[in-house]
Amino acid sequence: MNRSSIIEEHFMRTRLLQRYYRALWLPVLLWQCPLPPVQYGIKHVSGGGSVKVAIPNSNAAVKTNSRFGKRKRLNVTYEIARVDGLCEESMISPYFQDNLNVRSDAVDKKSKWEPPHWQEVLRNIQEMRKNKDAPVDNMGCDKCIADDVPPKVRRYHSLISLMLSSQTKDQVTFAAMQRLRQHGLTVSNVLATDDEMLGQLIYPVGFWKTKVKFIKKTSQILKEEYNEDIPDSVQKLCQLPGVGPKMAHLCMNIAWGLLTGIGVDTHVHRISNRLGWVQTTTKTPEATRVALESWLPRELWDEVNHLLVGFGQQVCRPVGPACSTCLNRDLCPFGRSQTKHSKKKQ
Ligand code: SF4
């Protein structure tokens, strides 16, 4: 081989290598595309072989044939395929792993919405509630349960007090529970009591006639299916007549000591919307529960119900909230709008 052919061969190889490595940038370009934040990796690279980019949840495939020079053909295949079994973690280059972390962090941050200044707002509510002198503090459902009865009966008391508390003031629920306990609040005793008598015992709780029917039906189910105990899951509790998610979550906490979700009643629902603690206005307590649980740290779930119920009874009332004296008046969107409104009037 003469000198000129050696130089020509050398240049040809150099050009070939340049084009080949340029072609390897395609996976990088693919990475920049707005694809889902999933695992990417180069499966196999070899001279004149194939390059595979694995993307889960996609069956798309891109194949590129490139002609390099006149004398040799180099096929470089890019394949986009499901990651299952194809893209193991060890196969992902550190470059892609770093980018994956950045992208998943970005997604986490994006999905992790939380209301501005919520810690400060919460501290202010804790300050306003420090005396613990709201009706819920002394006459809430957890205060309606007898201490001197077996655990099974205590759990039944929790459930009945929660059923009575719906659409009813704490004072009225507490008084009705006192009368029921004096009468004998057990599953068998309630079943043995006629509807009229039961109605007299719980009157004037809200919707007392309907509640008489619910209590009777529930007690019958508890006798037949739960050996006079109450169900131990939210799902099963919600199957009882007159028991909804709010009651079920509170019941799991009070009766079983298990924290399964935030108990959102009308106070928690109203205040969360006034404070802007939900990303978009919610129409139902259940939607508020989901919205709150999406950002509020779990260790506060237990406290927040009690805190907001009492706050709603004393300060952030349904009608005529005391915004002018509330510590959150400058942080709360509803409070600010009230202040502006009253200034305009003056
Ligand atoms: S400023 Fe008014 S609406 Fe806002 S939390 Fe206080 S009392 Fe409620």
UniProtKB/TrEMBL annotation:
HhH-GPD domain mapped to chain residues: 164-314
Keyword Iron-sulfur: yes
Keywords: 4Fe-4S, DNA damage, DNA repair, Glycosidase, Hydrolase, Iron, Iron-sulfur, Lyase, Metal-binding, Mitochondrion, Nucleus, Transit peptide
Transmembrane segments: none
Required cofactor names: [4Fe-4S] cluster
Keyword Iron-sulfur: yes
Record Pfam families: HHH (PF00633), HhH-GPD (PF00730)
Superkingdom field: Eukaryota
EC number from the UniProt entry: 3.2.2.-, 4.2.99.18
Location in or out of the cell: Nucleus; Mitochondrion
Catalytic reaction equation(s): 2'-deoxyribonucleotide-(2'-deoxyribose 5'-phosphate)-2'-deoxyribonucleotide-DNA = a 3'-end 2'-deoxyribonucleotide-(2,3-dehydro-2,3-deoxyribose 5'-phosphate)-DNA + a 5'-end 5'-phospho-2'-deoxyribonucleoside-DNA + H(+)
Alphabetical list of HAMAP family matching this protein: Endonuclease_III_Nth
Its biological purpose: Bifunctional DNA N-glycosylase with associated apurinic/apyrimidinic (AP) lyase function that catalyzes the first step in base excision repair (BER), the primary repair pathway for the repair of oxidative DNA damage. The DNA N-glycosylase activity releases the damaged DNA base from DNA by cleaving the N-glycosidic bond, leaving an AP site. The AP lyase activity cleaves the phosphodiester bond 3' to the AP site by a beta-elimination. Primarily recognizes and repairs oxidative base damage of pyrimidines.
Family per record: Belongs to the Nth/MutY family.
Identification of the protein by name: Endonuclease III homolog
Biological source species: Dryococelus australis
